[in-house]
Amino acid sequence: MKLGIIGATGWLGSALGAGLLSRGILQPGDLVLLNRSGPRPDYHGHADVTWARDVADLVAQSDVIVVSVRPEDWPGLDLRAEGRLVLSFMAGVDAATLAGCSGRIVRAMPNAVAEIGASYSPFWAAGGVTEADRDTVRRLLSAIGTTDELRTETQIDLMTALPGSGAAYPALMAVAMAGFMRAQGVCEPIAWRAAEAAVIGGARLLEGRITEAPALLAAYRDYRGTTAAGLDAAEAAGFDRAIEAALSAATEKARRMAASPA
Ligand SMILES: NC(=O)C1=CN([C@@H]2O[C@H](COP(=O)(O)OP(=O)(O)OC[C@H]3O[C@@H](n4cnc5c(N)ncnc54)[C@H](OP(=O)(O)O)[C@@H]3O)[C@@H](O)[C@H]2O)C=CC1
Ligand SMILES: O=C(O)[C@@H]1CCC=N1
Questions:
Q1: Which CATH class is domain 168-257?
Q2: Per the count of CB atoms within 10 A, which of 71, 171, 222, 256 is most buried?
């Protein structure tokens, strides 16, 4: 299979290319790459990839095409992909808009954790996508982590808001936590290590057992100690409302982008 990646040197496109090559899912000769800034002598340690001249050249050389450009760059691509499977990573560019390229459309929502091969990248397939196409999508996405198929396209906007945000909310928490420590006179490196202990250490404890989060919170509350006092104060200050506001705003932005394409 020849895979064309439009946006091959971007944040996600580059992570996909790196994962496909390092996991041996595709060989360098299977990759047809395109970006805006031009060919590079080395692509993740490989020189023997193919750089397309333009979008039409990439389509001519590819069986499957990944579109990983910013949403606002989609109209300018003028992609014509009749008979091809087209896998879009773009937020807020819906299937009705993508259908203009005449390909078989799948939308996936990876995140920045693709950089370390641990993205959760759910996908949704439009009409006309075959079982073989779905297998291809699962194989490609396995290069950057895990996936599930979604039943409706509207859920892509929700996934854009949550897993799509990658490390953003953990980073937001870490910055607030380290800031509190610094404000209390803790030196910079120890402030960051304290925040890392809570954000990363806590996440590692929950890894693979996230559904146990409510029970873990109950255990802290039953303890009736300092953490219980902190949890109560966080809730009273609107912690849940802040998360809901963030995810609603991001979902709404994705919906607005789809309703008014660039
Ligand atoms: N980053 C994220 O965390 C997430 C991103 N997404 C979606 O993934 C898509 C890609 O995002 P991201 O990787 O962050 O974006 P980047 O800005 O990092 O990369 C965009 C890529 O597109 C290339 N490009 C831009 N215009 C053209 C063009 N006309 N022809 C060919 N290539 C072009 C750029 O080339 P060059 O390198 O030369 O500039 C670059 O390689 C977006 O649509 C975004 O909504 C979805 C979930 C999470
Ligand atoms: O912030 C963004 O727009 C990108 C796309 C979806 C998630 N991150």
A1: mainly alpha
A2: 71
